[in-house]
Every structure is written in C-alpha cells, then in structure tokens.
Amino acid sequence: MDNLKFIQVETDENIGIIQLNRPEVLNALNRKMVNEIVRTIEDMDRDEKVKVIVLCGNGKAFAAGADINEMAQDSAIDLELLNQFADWDLLLQVKKPMIGAVHGFALGGGFELALACDLLFAAEDAKFGFPEINLAVMPGAGGTQRLTKLMGKTKALEWLWSGEMMTASEAEQHGIINKRLPKELVIEETINYAKKLAEKPALSVRFIKEAVYKAVDDSLLEGMQYERKNFSLLFSTEDQKEGMKAFMEKRKPQFKGR
C-alpha cells in the first residue's frame, strides 16, 4: 500500500511488520490511520511471501486510544453515515496470524486493536484499559465483545465500568496477553516468535486459527465438525505428504505452504 502517512511498514524475512507512527500523540488512532492499518493487513494477508503479521507502536506507546479531537463534535447521524467501524470488521476475516507487541499505553481503540491480534506480547510497562466510560461513551470497535470472550462477563464488566487501567501483570493473569517481556526486548522477541511460527506449514496454521475461533463463537458440535473437515482437507496438501515423509525419514520437513 502506497502513500502511507500514519504507519511504517517493513518486512523481516517473511514477517510483515506494521508500526503505528503518530508518536507525537502516542499513536492515537484517527480514521485514516485505522484505514491504513487495515488495508495494509489485507495486503499482507494476500501476499504469499508474508507468513505472519506483527503490529507494534513507535515512540512511548502502542496506541493511547482514538483521536478524540476528530470525533468530539460528531453526531449519531455523522457516525452512522461514516460507518467508521466497517474497517474494524475486516480484521475478523484475516487468515494469517497477527501478533501484537505492546509497550506503554494500549487504551480505548488501541486496546481494541491489540485485542484484534491472535497473540499479544507485552512489555512490563504496558497498560491496558477502556476509559471510554469516563467520556460518557463506550467501546465501539469490538472492545466489549473481545474482552468478554477473554475474561468472562463479570470481570469484563468490572473493567469496562471502572475505566481503570490494568497492568501487564493483571492482563497476563486474565489471559489477555501471552507473555510479559522487558520493554527493550518486546518487539525483538515478538518478531523472533513470529519467525518460528512462519516455519510451520501455512495451511495448518490457518486452519488451526479458524478452528480455535470456531470454538470461541460456535457450539462444541459445530466446532468439532469444522475441525474434522479441515483435518481431512489437510491430507490433500503437499505439506502433509512432506511432513509425514520427513517424520518417517527422521529429517526436518521442508514445507512449501501448499
């Protein structure tokens, strides 16, 4: 994606890295920035050379929330006509793994962007929260839904009603993040993990992701039927043949992602 103003994009081997880049406002998310993030993720999701997508923030924070100056005067009709959350809905369709590397603040829309990732690695100084209630509004880009699925109803209500920030330690305790790391290592270690994941067979990675989200959203029977269908489907891939052959020959498999 060309002419990016609010994010920086690079690749490290087969890892696509998106860095939020409004450090002067702690990477506060405006509408154009969200559009750049989502369109770039979509491009990476279609790029066969990219196996894993990593999101991180430049400066002192991951993202300190939405750009309040942009929306303070909006009416309900304005918001409905803008349909600004349509971009966020597209993140539900991403097939490749998305991993967030969070340091500093991940608040409001920034927390929602972090929760849209499949895995989260966080610095010891990371702070998460939904302060929207203190502005007499509420999360609008999936915050109430994703947080509840991770924490359960009662804990989600506690945090959403309080508007307070949770520490990285509390986020780890509640299953929101996968790992706490020193601030200076969080991006490096996230990329290292992404590189290890990128070595795995891409279709297995994709189908496992889809099956796990089925487990979150659907009934047990529906999830198990979906799992079995894709288990069988993987036996039609080149990587399955290579993986089992390599196992029997006691060598490292050479996966092609097909």
TrEMBL record:
* First-tier enzyme category under EC: lyase
The name on file for this protein is Enoyl-CoA hydratase
| One example of a Gene Ontology biological process annotation | fatty acid beta-oxidation
Q: Which family does it belong to?
A: Belongs to the enoyl-CoA hydratase/isomerase family.
- Annotated membrane-spanning segments are none
Q: Per its UniProt record, what Pfam families does this chain match?
A: ECH_1
The UniProt entry, under InterPro entries, shows: ClpP/crotonase-like_dom_sf, Enoyl-CoA_hyd/isom_CS, Enoyl-CoA_hydra/iso, Enoyl-CoA_hydra_C
**Gene3D superfamilies hit by this protein:** 2-enoyl-CoA Hydratase, Chain A, domain 1 (3.90.226.10), Lyase 2-enoyl-coa Hydratase, Chain A, domain 2 (1.10.12.10)
Q: What is its EC number?
A: 4.2.1.17
CDD domains in the record: crotonase-like
